[in-house]
């Protein structure tokens, strides 16, 4: 796969031979001054019984704030395209008050 950076005239080559795929239905974000971490996992408490919502964390992706900002812009664009094709998504609260305190 490749993509061209229009502003710089450079070509980006994505090498996917070592790529792995994982599924997550829970995500959370943590940050420091130097890096932003996105934690992904699977919610185990399917019915939300009790006061705890258990999540098995699978992956943590750490990136610079610059990369995180570019990722945020790409995700906003991808969701907008998805909603244009399939309809509005009601994702519920994203302020940490939902199950697992995550998006």
Layout of secondary structure:
Layout: E1 2-5, E2 10-13, E3 26-31, E4 36-43, E5 55-63, H1 65-86
Antiparallel strand pairs: 1-2, 3-4, 4-5
Q: How many helical elements?
A: 1
Strand content: 25-35%
Which stretches are poorly predicted, pLDDT < 50 over at least 5 residues? 97-102
Q: How far from one another are the termini? A: 29 Å
User: What spatial form do the alpha-carbon principal axes imply?
Assistant: globular
- Which oligomerization state do the chains in this entry correspond to? single chain
Structural class from helices and strands?
A: alpha+beta
Overall radius of gyration: 17 Å
**Major sheet attributes:** 3 strands, antiparallel
Helix percent reads: 10-25%
In spatial order, strands of the major sheet run: 3-4-5
Rounded average pLDDT: 85
Give helix and strand order, one letter per element, not per position.
Answer: EEEEEH
* SS elements, strand count: 5
Protein name: DUF3467 domain-containing protein
InterPro entries: DUF3467
Pfam families: DUF3467 (PF11950)
Structure description:
The protein is built from one helix and five strands, in the order E-E-E-E-E-H. With 103 residues, the protein is of the alpha+beta class. The protein has a domain of 70 residues. The strands form two sheets. It has a three-stranded antiparallel sheet. A two-stranded antiparallel ribbon has the order 1-2. Strand 1 and strand 2 form a beta hairpin. The C terminus is likely disordered.
